[in-house]
C-alpha cells in the first residue's frame, strides 16, 4: 500500500518536526522608562488620543483636507502597497510548512530502429517498432522542519509584515500632521497678508496726505520720501508673504494628492486662538502609542528570528520526496490497478565543511540583530525627546504669544503718542515711522507666534503617536 506508506512517513516526520526550534526566543530589549515628562506637571496616565485627533481643533476645513489626504496621498498609497507585498511574502514563507505537490502528466512515442539487435535473442529484429509511453505521476516534496528553520523564517516574515504595517501608521500620522501644520501656516500667512494689506492702505493714505501738505509748504520733501520708502518696503513685504502663501498651498496640494493648479484653500486669517488640551500621559505609553517605536521593535523581532534560521543551517536537513501515479504503454490500460507506480525517497543533508560560511553568516545575522536593537532604543529615546521638545515649545510659544499681545498693545499706544507729538511739532516724522514699523513688526511676530503655538500643539500630537491603533494597521486598515 504505497499511499499508506507515504502518509505514515509524513505523519511521523511531522511529529518529529514539531519539536524544538533552535535560536533565541524573542524578548523586548530593555529601555529606561522615566516616570514622567519634566516639561509636564506630574499626573496619571491620560486617556488615549482619538484616532480622529484633528477634531480637537474644531476646524471643518482641516477635517476636509485630512480626509482628502488620507484618500489620495501617494506616499501613503505606496506604504499600503508595501504592506500588501510584505503580507504576501509572509504567506510565501508560510507555504514551506506544507508539502509541495505537483501533477506532471506526460506522453512520449518512440520509434525503435529495425536494424538494432534484439535484447532477447541478440539477433537483428525484422522491423522497427513504435512504442507509446503514458505517465501520470503525482510528485511530492517536503522538508521536515526538525530544527525550526522554516518556522523561524515564517516568524521573521510575519514580524517584517507587522513592521511594514506599523510603517503605514508612521506615514499616515506624518501626512495628517503635515496637513494640519501646512493648514495653520497658510492661515497665519493669511493673517500676515491682512495686516500688511491694512498697513499698505494706511500708508497710501498717509502718503496722499503728506503730499498735500508738501504742496502747501507745511512739510519738506524728505518727509514724503520717507513715507513713500516705507510704503514701498511694505508692499514688497506683502508680495513676498503672498508668494510664501502660494508655495505653502502648493505643498498642501501635493499632500492631499491634488494637482496644484486646481487646488485652493480659501483665505481664513488665523486669529489669536488657543490650542486644545492634549492628554500627554506617561512616557511608558509611548512604547504602545507611537507607530515608529512599534515598527522598530518588530524589526528587532524579525532579526531575532533570523538568528534561528542561521543557527538551523548548522544542523542536518531532512527531505522527503515521493512520487505516485500511473504509467502504461497503452492508453486504455493507463488507469488500471496494474499500471500504478510509487516511489519514496527520504534524504538527509548534513553540513560537514562550508569553509566557515555558516559561522560567518550566523555572526552577521547576530550583528544585524544588535543593529536593530540599537535602532529600537534610539527610537524610544527620540520619542521621549520629541514629546519634551513639543511640550517645551508649546509652553514657550504660549508665553511668547502673551508677551507679543502686550507688545502690540504698547506699540499702538506708542504710535498714537508719536502721531500726537508730530502733529504738535514736538517730534520729527522719523518718530512716527519708527512707531509704525514697531507696530507692524510686533503684529507680524504675533501672527507667527500664534502659528508656532498651533504647530507645536500638532507636533505634540504627532510626538505622542496621534490616534494610532496597531490593531487597525495589522488588520489591514
Summarize the structure.
This protein has 477 residues and is an alpha+beta fold.
CA-atom Rg in angstroms? 38 Å
The portion of residues assigned to helices is 55-70%
Instruction: Spell out the CATH superfamily.
Output: Outer membrane efflux proteins (OEP)
By helix and strand content, what is the structural category?
alpha+beta
Number of helices: 10
CATH topology: Outer membrane efflux proteins (OEP)
Largest sheet: 5 strands, antiparallel
Q: What is the level 1 CATH name?
A: Mainly Alpha
Beta-strand residue fraction: 5-15%
Q: CATH architecture, please?
A: Up-down Bundle
What's the pLDDT, averaged over the residues?
Answer: 87
Q: List how many beta strands DSSP finds.
A: 5
Label the overall shape: elongated
Question: How is the quaternary structure best described?
Answer: single chain
Domain tally: 1
Given as residue ranges, the uncertain stretches (5+ residues, pLDDT < 50) are none
Q: What is the chain-wise order of helices and strands? A: HHHEEEHHHHEEHHH
**Amino-to-carboxy terminus distance:** 50 Å
Folded structure, characterized:
This protein is an alpha+beta fold. The chain has one domain: Outer membrane efflux proteins (OEP) (Up-down Bundle), CATH 1.20.1600.10. Helices cover 60% and strands 10% of the residues. The chain has ten helices and five strands; from the N terminus they run H-H-H-E-E-E-H-H-H-H-E-E-H-H-H. Helix 4 (149-215) runs antiparallel to helix 5 and helix 8 (357-423) runs antiparallel to helix 9 (429-463). The model has no long low-confidence stretch (mean pLDDT 87).
Amino acid at each position: 500500500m504505497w499511499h499508506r506508506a507515504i502518509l505514515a512517513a509524513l505523519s511521523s516526520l511531522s511529529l518529529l518536526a514539531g519539536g524544538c526550534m533552535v535560536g533565541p526566543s524573542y524578548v523586548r530589549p530593555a529601555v529606561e522608562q522615566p516616570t514622567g515628562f519634566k516639561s509636564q506637571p506630574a499626573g496619571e496616565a491620560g486617556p488615549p488620543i482619538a484616532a480622529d485627533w484633528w477634531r480637537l481643533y474644531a476646524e471643518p476645513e482641516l477635517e476636509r483636507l485630512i480626509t482628502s489626504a488620507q484618500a489620495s496621498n501617494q506616499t501613503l498609497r505606496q506604504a499600503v502597497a508595501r504592506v500588501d507585498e510584505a503580507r504576501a511574502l509572509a504567506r510565501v514563507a508560510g507555504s514551506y510548512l506544507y508539502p509541495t505537490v505537483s501533477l506532471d502528466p506526460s506522453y512520449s512515442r518512440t520509434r525503435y530502429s529495425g536494424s538494432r539487435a534484439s535484447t532477447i535473442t541478440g539477433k537483428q529484429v525484422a522491423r522497427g517498432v513504435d512504442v507509446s509511453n503514458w505517465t501520470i505521476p503525482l510528485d511530492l516534496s517536503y522538508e521536515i522542519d526538525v530544527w525550526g528553520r522554516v518556522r523561524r523564517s515564517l516568524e521573521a516574515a510575519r514580524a517584517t509584515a507587522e513592521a511594514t504595517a506599523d510603517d503605514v501608521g508612521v506615514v499616515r500620522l506624518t501626512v495628517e500632521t503635515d496637513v494640519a501644520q501646512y493648514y495653520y501656516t497658510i492661515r497665519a500667512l493669511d493673517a500676515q497678508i491682512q495686516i500688511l494689506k491694512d498697513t499698505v492702505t494706511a500708508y497710501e493714505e498717509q502718503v496722499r496726505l503728506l503730499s498735500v501738505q508738501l504742496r502747501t509748504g507745511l512739510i519738506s520733501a524728505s518727509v514724503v520720501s520717507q513715507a513713500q520708502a516705507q510704503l514701498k518696503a511694505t508692499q514688497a513685504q506683502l508680495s513676498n508673504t503672498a508668494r510664501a502663501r502660494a508655495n505653502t498651498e502648493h505643498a498642501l496640494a501635493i499632500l492631499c494628492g491634488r494637482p496644484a493648479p486646481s487646488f485652493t484653500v480659501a483665505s481664513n486669517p488665523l486669529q489669536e486662538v488657543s490650542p486644545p488640551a492634549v492628554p500627554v500621559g506617561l512616557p511608558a505609553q509611548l512604547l504602545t502609542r507611537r507607530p515608529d517605536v512599534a515598527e522598530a521593535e518588530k524589526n528587532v523581532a524579525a532579526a531575532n528570528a533570523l538568528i534561528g534560521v542561521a543557527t538551523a543551517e548548522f544542523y542536518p536537513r531532512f527531505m522527503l520526496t515521493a512520487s505516485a501515479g500511473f504509467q502504461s504503454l497503452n492508453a486504455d490500460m493507463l488507469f488500471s490497478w496494474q499500471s500504478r507506480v510509487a516511489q519514496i525517497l527520504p534524504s538527509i543533508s548534513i553540513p560537514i565543511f562550508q569553509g566557515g560560511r555558516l559561522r560567518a553568516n550566523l555572526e552577521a545575522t547576530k550583528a544585524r540583530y544588535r543593529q536593530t536593537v540599537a535602532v529600537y532604543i534610539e527610537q524610544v529615546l527620540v520619542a521621549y525627546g520629541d514629546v519634551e521638545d513639543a511640550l517645551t515649545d508649546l509652553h514657550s510659544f504660549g508665553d511668547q504669544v502673551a508677551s507679543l499681545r502686550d507688545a502690540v498693545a504698547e506699540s499702538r499706544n506708542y504710535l498714537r503718542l508719536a502721531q500726537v507729538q508730530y502733529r504738535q511739532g514736538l517730534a520729527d516724522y522719523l518718530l512716527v515711522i519708527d512707531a509704525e514699523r514697531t507696530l507692524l513688526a510686533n503684529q507680524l511676530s504675533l501672527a507667527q507666534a500664534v502659528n508656532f503655538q498651533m504647530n507645536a500643539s500638532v507636533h505634540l500630537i504627532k510626538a505622542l503617536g496621534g490616534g494610532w491603533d496597531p490593531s487597525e494597521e495589522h488588520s489591514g486598515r
